[in-house]
Amino acid sequence: MPLYLSRFSYTPETWARLIGHPEDRAKAAQAYIESVGGKLHGFWYAFGTHDGYNLWEAPDNVSMAAVALAISGGGALASFETTVLLTVDETMDALRKAEGVRYRAPGA
């Protein structure tokens, strides 16, 4: 199954709610991805541009998109970005296929 890395930031209102009622949001994230047949591999909070990161496994892009849309539509996040991760083998296959792509630079 494909892996996905998500970066998220809470709204100030969400932080205020969590301060008033601390909650392990990893459990919620796990339930969301399991509802589409996937798995949560990690949930981390961070300093910096994003408040946290998730590593997910999902059956396909549509399933991951469904989870991302549901989370984004919930209103608790200021931002939510998801990146599809490629394995080394998938990248090697892409590199081999790239050789057959005849790229032409703009204006060339």
From TrEMBL:
Domain of life from the UniProt record: Bacteria
Pfam family for this entry, one: GYD
Protein's UniProt name: GYD domain-containing protein
